[in-house]
Specification:
The protein starts with 33 loop residues before the first strand and ends with a strand. The longest helix has 10 residues. A five-stranded antiparallel β-sheet has the order 1-2-3-4-5, with helices on one face. A five-stranded antiparallel β-sheet has the order 6-7-8-9-10, with no helix packed on it. Strands 11-12-13-14 form a four-stranded antiparallel β-sheet, covered by helices on one side. It has 291 residues and is mainly β. It is built from four helices and 18 strands.
Length: 291
């Protein structure tokens, strides 16, 4: 994806038999150097890890588990879920932390230096997607413009490289049933970006709406998934709807998202009075914030 950053890979330790690139900023910097990083099977890690994932992320499944061995003989486990997040555990299965390598961020969170670069070099384009992610062992901003260009910047906002996204297509090139799906489910939203990809020989469509939603469809235009934290209000647990109607009868839900707080997945509900309510995955109220 980020073709011109390979020079940084010289800083990454490659181990014989490794199944995955090592991130240079994983865990803490004062740990001894790792000597092995390998994929392990279901019997090679503590059961407490499986229990932790099941309790805190009941809607997710484990994709891969890696074991990192250090010079002093200690080990840690890295668990990758199907939501793309990675979770770290010590040798006894105690939770250490998490890393979301692809974090969608708002345009307001982008360094001013990046905004200035885009305004100067692409004055006719707008930002349709911004991510803060790990590439070749370093943290970078990936910015997608309305013309399909992907621009990469370092953490300070300095330009690194660009990638011409040839998969970018116009809205008129989308299958009609995708347009119908958006109209039916997001009548107040507008498609601001669309692309067509080929994955394992199969065609896929990805679109982004002006409300922040990212939707994926198969080659026939059938809905597949949402690639953002935003969720339709109709998909919320009934317990959340009931709570809002009982406790905030004069307000309505303006936005609903799935978020991670302290390693726990939860619903974040924003009301039209800007109050934010948080619920667990069963719809039980946790706490509120009033910005």
């Amino acid at each position: 994806m980020l073709k011109y950053l390979v020079v940084f890979s010289a800083f990454i330790l490659f181990i014989t038999g490794c199944d995955k690139d090592e991130d240079t900023d994983q865990l803490t910097s004062n740990q001894p150097k790792s000597t092995q990083f390998e994929t392990i099977d279901n019997s090679g890690y503590p059961d407490v890890i499986t229990n932790y994932i099941g309790q805190n992320y009941p809607n997710q499944s484990i994709v891969e588990i890696y074991m990192r061995t250090f010079e002093d003989g200690s080990t840690t486990y890295e668990v990758e879920l199907n939501n793309g997040n990675e979770y770290y555990f010590d040798s006894n299965g105690n939770y250490l932390g998490m890393d979301d390598s692809n974090v969608n961020i708002s345009n307001d969170s982008i360094p001013q230096l990046i905004g200035n670069y885009i305004s100067s070099n692409y004055p006719e384009q707008s930002i349709v997607k911004a991510e803060f992610e790990m590439e070749d062992g370093i943290r970078v901003y990936e910015i997608t413009l309305s013309n399909g260009l992907e621009l990469y910047f370092d953490e300070s906002g300095m330009f690194l490289s660009l990638d011409d996204d040839s998969d970018h297509i116009s809205t008129s090139e989308l299958p009609q049933n995708i347009l119908d799906y958006v109209t039916a489910n997001y009548p107040d939203a507008t498609i601001i970006y669309a692309e067509m990809d080929i994955e394992d020989g199969a065609t896929e469509y990805e679109i982004k709406l002006d409300n922040g939603m990212e939707l994926e469809f198969d080659g026939s235009g059938n809905y597949v998934s949402s690639d953002d934290n935003h969720i339709p209000i109709a998909d919320l647990p009934q317990a959340i709807i009931d709570y809002v109607e009982t406790n905030y009868p004069d307000n309505s839900i303006a936005k609903a998202e799935l978020e991670y707080e302290d390693g726990q997945q939860m619903y974040e509900i924003e009301l039209d009075n800007e109050i934010e309510l948080y619920f667990d995955m069963n719809g039980n109220f946790l706490f509120m914030e009033n910005d």
